[in-house]
Here is the input.
Amino acid sequence: MFFLRKYKNRMIVTIVAIILIIIIGVTSTERMSLTKIEKVIGNIFTPIEKFFYNISKKTSDFFVSIKDISNIKAENEELKKRVKELEELNRRYEDIIGKSDYLKNEAELLRKTDYNIISAQVIGKEPGNWFDRFVIDKGLKDGIKKGDTVIQAVETEEGIVEEGIVGRIAEVGDNWAKVISIVDENSKISFKVIRTQDGGVISGNIDGRLSGYLFDTKADVMKGDKLFTSGLGGTYVKDLYIGEIKDVVKKDEDLMKHIYVEPAVNFKKLFKVFIISK
Here is the structure.
């Protein structure tokens, strides 16, 4: 008994070694069928092997999934970047299309005008729906002076590009100037009807239109007649396109013929103007 207890561990190791040698010897030869021992060992270790294989596969799939997610995120960021680039490109195209008529008219104005004109961008305006008072990015250093006339290229229904009257320079700094437009309530313009050469005075209204009266109460004017600056008073350069008569009203209380005029310039959208430098 003492001998067994003393050499118990050595005996176990020896027995295991013998079993392994037998297994190696049995399995090392080429055979068509398994021995009973191999079947027993296979039955024992196959489930264990399958278990660890499944764990290994799931772990591998997990890390592959993480890599796929990372790739998807990278692709998503790239797509977002591309969408932003396309949106910006689309915005530029829309801007070009939106300004195409204006740019065409501007080019025609520069070709035909006899005035010395200075281009300027609108950089600010007073609160309200209309550009009745606004600021431009040119001033004294650019040759701008108080009282200079401000115009814009406008196209008539007949397709003729005219020098449309915008307003006049009211204040001027080194690199800025303030413009009071013709739709401002304090603006007054002497005009002539191009068809009949009848004259009168119009002023701005809060609704962005122009209204005024004719000097001759019997003047033969009608809806659709075009008005140009007459140059009387010296406030504005003469022969600038003002707009078109939309209504003619004879008022009994003052026996005068009143007119309502739609300005040729769109005073809701002013981005660029020209200043006639005297």
Q: What stands out?
A: The chain has two domains: 37-112, 118-276.
